[in-house]
Amino acid sequence: MELRKAEFSDLSAITAIYKDAKEALKAQGIDQWQDGYPNEESARADIENGTSYVLADESGVFATACLAFGHEPTYDAVYGGAWQAEGEYGFLHRVAVSGTRKRSGAASRFFEELKRQAEERDVKILRGDTHQDNAAMQRTMEKNGFCRRGTILLEDGSERIAYECLLETEEKERAKPQ
């Protein structure tokens, strides 16, 4: 399994993965991503911005995500909670895995990469969000050291559960004697 930055030649594979993810969410009765987003336009923008990553193997691209650092406007306000830390942060968006590769550890691989890139940049704060009905992503985030911090609102007013991971806290936890 190879993790790499996406290229424009990956666009059709990424949009097919998004389509597959949308159908899976719909089948579970989750209204996340049921309004046309994410789509080819968002995938293209992520590639242009250098924030699109894919997981691939000999059979081709089977997972995608946006890994970014900077400012995410929807994270400016947290309702029913608060961020634990202030400062520069990294975030993960649009994590999608092909239906044929669910439960393969692909989503966790993106979280590992985000942590690796954060450490390279000396960034200690990671954030993310997910739909309140997306239990699989909630489990994945929590398994990867992210804690619930409250609720954020998307531009369209939709609520999402806000998560945060402090890398220094994670390092201290790993260093504790067992």
Topology:
Blueprint: E1 2-5, H1 11-27, H2 40-49, E2 52-57, E3 60-70, E4 89-97, H3 106-121, E5 125-130, H4 135-143, E6 147-153, E7 159-166, H5 167-175
Parallel strand pairs: 4-5
Antiparallel strand pairs: 1-2, 2-3, 3-4, 5-7, 6-7
Describe the structure in your own words.
The protein is an alpha+beta fold. It has a single domain (2-175), classed as Aminopeptidase, CATH 3.40.630.30. Helix content is 34%, strand content 29%. It is built from 5 helices and 7 strands, in the order βααβββαβαββα. The protein is globular. The protein starts with a strand and ends with a helix. The model has no long low-confidence stretch (mean pLDDT 91).
